[in-house]
Amino acid sequence: MIRVCSVGEIPEGEAVRVDPGPDGVPVAVFHVGGAYYALDDTCTHQDASLTDGYVEEEDCAVECPLHASCFDLRTGEPSGPPARTPVRTHAVVVEDGAVYVRLQSADAIV
To answer: Which structural domain, as residue segments, surrounds residue 6?
Structure first.
């Protein structure tokens, strides 16, 4: 697992980018509705950082800043074009006041 931050360091409705894991892919960690979600940070349509996207708290989604593809933070599924491929999700664990991400393998899409 990768330690991201202490609980409370990511403001509600915002995200942080975590340095690449073992497969070299950066991860975006979002704090929405009191919960934490982690996705690969790169939009599957084009190489844009989802950390820089607009967080839609009511839909639990992030909108890519480049071409407005939206991804569900819980599943990684896009809600419509131009993105058609889901973003890989990662498990988030909150333990002892810290937020951790358990990375999925490079070929896993959850």
So the answer is: 2-102
Alpha carbons 78 and 72: distance in angstroms, whole number: 6
Q: pLDDT tens-digit profile of 77-103?
A: 999 889 999 999 999 999 999 999 998
pTM above threshold 0.85: yes
Residue 38: which CATH number? Answer: 2.102.10.10
